[in-house]
Amino acid sequence: MERLVSVVIPAHNSIPYIVETLDSVFAQQHRPLEVLVVDDGSTDSTANVIRESYPEVRLIQQQQRGHAAARNAGILAARGAFLSFLDHDDLWSADKLDLQLVCFARDPELDLVFGHMQNFFTPEMPAVDRERIAVPLHPIPGQLQGSMLARRKSFDRVGFFDEARGMGDFLDWYGRATLAGLRMLMLEETVVHRRIHANNYQRTHKHERGQILRAVKDLLDRRRAAG
Predict the structure, then answer these.
(1) What's the pTM value of the predicted model, to 2 decimals?
(2) What is the domain extent for residue 29?
């Protein structure tokens, strides 16, 4: 379907946030919408809550393989002409898809549309913990998967996310997209709200942060090789 948007949400032990996240997706005015949640080996009641409360969601369950593998599983199952992504703890602005789809309608040659993102502290986080985390709380350009809407045929030119990367998988994909010459647009509007909480992946897996530097190095090496 030419107007079908597929939304891929990787989820692992997502009970504290998944309901609010899904509600932000279904608050979008655009239809038709295909929502795929990939339960990546959760040990909580994520799958049961989705089955009981969101029968319209396509639930995919797999053994825990990481968020990149979960996104790839969702991509394989997705049927839409457009692909979008959202982490299980983040939120979309209510007009996210409408804003981006207007851009595609105006420019048939456009491949990717991004928007701004805004960090926010989850309400239950104590003030003392908030003071220890240095993140911008104003809108900034969102070069991350949650702010992106992609034509499926354009996404396929770049390929899947690198499942060997615990961090830096989107940076790696974005680098490959730029080398492939995909046409991109960054909206001024905020389209995604990124939740800051005690269990953010980048906080609980600090030992993997070197993978971000490796993703940057790999991109630079590819650019040099391409001349």
Answers:
(1) 0.88
(2) 5-226
